[in-house]
Write a structure and sequence with these properties.
OB fold (Dihydrolipoamide Acetyltransferase, E2P); binds adenosine-5'-triphosphate; 38% strand; alpha+beta
Length: 372
């Protein structure tokens, strides 16, 4: 089921100050059918608000939401065919796992074609029988691999298991769209890794179009077919994860993705050459202007004749890699990080470097837009 979001806007009035919050601002994205999309951005950028508008829990100030051809903008949440999973699992504590998963089916009326005595075919809406419900619960419990836990209460489960139950409960109604709001935030690091692989597997097996909200770039990169990076309620870039990392549209995206983060420098273009300080790095046929330059930590090459020099602050050795923490007066942070192979010969004080062109990005000084 393709999801199309057109000019979606949510404005929250602030009754105290009278100032409005544009939580989502003219968002236009199309989510391809059967894909898992990561909605990524810093706290407060409008991810949850977007998800809640897609689910129907919040109504938009402006814009439309389509599931396939259906305009669902004004449809009640229960009529949209969505499965929602929250950070805090939201399971009913007094019910067993089995009952929790079965719960959404209890009042569900399913359309069934039946033949009347005269041979006429009519659609009958009826509740599911107990046996039918049980069959569906067991099917979905198998899918998320919690069959052996069906008799337990939520309090007798680990966080990861509870989240699987929440996912099973969201899937049991066979939703058209699965919406996950920071589903892994309450899990410890190991479980988070394991559960995100599980979510990816379940999504692949079911083929349900899924939106996964997270502020964790690594999580989004590892799980998503495509990422939407948001800031201030606006989509900054939508692409496959590798492309977002390798070809960011602006400085915000370049900074938001990557650990350790990209290094930023003040620079300029002068006589068709790119400079940091008074060192010419490479040629660029563009008018003279001030710019900002981003270099990924792995974007440097140690070279005694390198075009860029910096003062070494200290060296960090971690397993395969060596990080050189260096200083430069044009660096926008106190220091910057160069990652090189562990067997590299590292000088004591000053380091000379070349820059890899595919790891070096130029940005407009004022707007932060990428200059190519
Ligand atoms: P987080 O990761 O912290 O949950 P988010 O990206 O999901 O952040 P939203 O929760 O969508 O962000 O919030 C976007 C903006 O809208 C924020 O500035 C937030 O303060 C504001 N906001 C959200 N809900 C309301 C509300 N009910 N009333 C007023 N402002 C709101």
């Amino acid at each position: 089921m393709e999801i199309k979001i057109s000019h979606l806007t949510k404005i929250f009035p602030n009754k105290k100050t009278g100032e409005e919050v544009r939580a989502v601002d003219d968002l236009n994205i199309t989510i391809p059918s059967g894909k898992l999309i990561g909605l990524l951005g810093p706290s407060g950028c409008g991810k949850s608000t977007t998800l809640y508008m897609i689910s129907g829990l919040l109504s938009p100030t402006e814009g439309q939401i389509f599931f396939g051809e259906d305009d669902v903008t004004k449809l009640a949440p229960e009529k949209r065919g969505i499965g929602l999973v929250f950070q805090n699992y939201a399971l009913y504590p007094h019910m067993t796992v089995f009952q929790n998963i079965r719960f959404p089916l209890e009042n569900l009326k399913r359309a069934k074609e039946v033949e009347t005595e005269t041979g006429e075919k009519i659609t009958n809406y009826s509740k599911m029988s107990k046996a039918e419900m049980e069959e569906e619960v067991i099917k979905v419990a198998k899918l998320v691999q919690i069959e052996e836990l069906l008799d337990r209460k939520p309090s007798q489960l680990s966080g990861g298991q509870q989240q699987r139950v929440a996912i099973a409960r969201a899937l049991v109604k066979k939703p058209r769209v699965l919406l996950l709001d920071e589903p892994l935030s309450n899990l410890d690091a190991r479980l988070r890794l394991q559960t995100r692989e599980e979510i990816k597997r379940i999504q692949r097996e079911t083929g349900i179009t899924t939106i996964f909200v997270t502020h964790d770039q690594e999580e989004a990169m590892s799980i998503s077919d495509e990422i939407v990076v948001m800031n201030f309620g606006v989509s900054q870039q939508m692409d496959d994860p590798q492309k977002v990392y390798e070809d960011p549209t602006n400085m915000f995206v370049a900074r938001f993705l990557g650990t350790p983060p990209i290094n930023l420098f003040d620079g300029e273009i002068k006589n068709e050459k790119v400079y940091i300080g008074n060192e010419a790095l490479f040629t660029k046929k563009l008018p003279d202007q001030k710019i900002k330059i981003g270099v990924r930590p792995e974007g440097f090459i140690l070279n005694n004749l390198g075009v860029f020099s910096a003062d070494i602050d200290f060296v960090e050795r971690i397993g395969r890699d060596v990080s050189i923490i260096a200083k430069h007066e044009n660096c926008l942070n106190e220091s910057f990080r160069v990652i090189v192979d562990a067997d590299s010969a590292i000088p004591a004080k000053k380091v000379k470097l070349n820059l890899k062109p595919n790891k070096t990005f130029l940005f407009d000084y004022d707007t932060g837009e990428r200059i190519k």
